[in-house]
Design brief:
By secondary structure, this protein is an alpha/beta fold. The chain has a domain of about 90 residues: Elongation Factor Tu (Ef-tu), domain 3 (Beta Barrel), CATH 2.40.30. The protein is about 15% helix and about 35% strand. It is built from five helices and 16 strands. The strands form three sheets. It has a seven-stranded antiparallel β-sheet with strand order 4-3-7-1-2-6-5. The relative contact order is 0.14. It binds flavin-adenine dinucleotide and FE2/S2 (inorganic) cluster.
Length: about 260
């Protein structure tokens, strides 16, 4: 894998937030025009793992030149990241992909996140000016609820185990109240995104979804991460688009779930 344009960042923090969940703060110097919904590619030091790991930007501090990332330990790459110490360097590339649109005219906004899809919604919540309600779903322990409480009018949690919030999913939270937002933003597992799309469509509410697909190159070159996107009024007008380059954020109406 070509390592052109890859930069070095200093790790300011890398600590466990909960079982298998870590937060990493990277000093990158210039954060660029990073927008919520974009991600960075992190590279492993072990030469056997050449492909980068995509991690969403959870928070940006332009002044300090830092990104806050939250990651879940899934396989060997993320396991390797847990071993990195403060002041060590890591290779990274970014910010990558398209972000969420920041619609300043929206007054009521609903943010719906699931699992490790929750982190990018935090920077989004900080930047949106309307009234934000946040619905978060997890298997067991929640993450970032305190951070969301500082910037949102309401934060509700559901866990499938019932250990926190209501027992169930974010779709159960949606049924608990009469939500009628101007826009929905969502990031999380595919099944949840499909349910959010259907819910929004039934009520004619615009929604943006951040899609997660397995990635390889992470920069638009290999086509591993494609998803089906509708490109016209006719459902037959669809094409494959790359989640890493054309997304990860798409209008819910365009995303074709199989
Ligand atoms: C746009 C985007 C944003 C993401 N943001 C986050 C985040 O903020 N926090 C977080 O914990 N996880 C996030 N992920 C998922 C994260 O990229 C994977 O969990 C991680 O790459 C797994 O690497 P691994 O070596 O531990 O696992 P392995 O299964 O060993 O990975 C093997 C290969 O498959 C790829 N891969 C495996 N699972 C995924 C996946 N779900 N998505 C993409 N590639 C995958 C890896 O990059 C690697 O190249 C995001 C994924 C995408 C596409
Ligand atoms: S991961 Fe290679 S094109 Fe998206």
């Amino acid at each position: 894998m070509e390592k052109k344009n890859i930069n070095k960042a200093r790790i300011l923090k890398n600590e466990a937030l909960g079982p298998e969940i870590y937060q990493m703060v990277l000093e990158v110097g210039d954060t660029g025009e990073a927008v919520p919904g974009q991600f960075v590619n992190l590279y492993c030091k072990d030469g056997a793992r050449l492909l980068p790991r995509a991690i969403s930007i959870c928070e940006v501090d332009r002044k300090a030149g830092t990104f806050r990332l939250i990651y879940k330990v899934l396989g060997r790459g993320t396991e390797e990241f847990t071993q990195l110490k403060e002041n060590e360097e890591i290779d990274w590339l970014g910010p990558l992909g398209s972000g969420f649109t920041l619609n300043t005219e929206d007054r009521e906004i609903l943010l719906i996140g699931g699992g490790v899809g929750v982190p990018p919604l935090l920077e989004l919540a900080k930047r949106l000016t309307g009234k934000k309600r946040v619905l978060l779903g997890f298997e067991n322990e929640s993450i970032l609820t305190g951070d969301f409480s500082k910037v949102a009018a309401e934060v509700a949690v559901a866990t499938t185990s019932g250990t926190e919030g209501i027992k169930g999913t974010v779709m159960d939270l949606l049924e608990q109240k009469e939500y009628l937002p101007d826009r929905i933003y969502s990031c999380g597992p595919k099944g949840m995104l499909k349910a959010v799309k259907d819910w929004a469509r039934e009520r004619n509410i615009p929604a943006e979804l951040s899609m997660e697909e397995r990635m390889a190159c992470g920069i638009g070159a290999c086509l591993v991460c494609t998803c089906k996107i509708n490109e016209g009024p006719d459902p037959r007008d669809w094409n494959y688009q790359r989640v890493c380059k054309d997304g990860p954020v798409f209008n819910a109406e365009e995303v074709m779930f199989e």
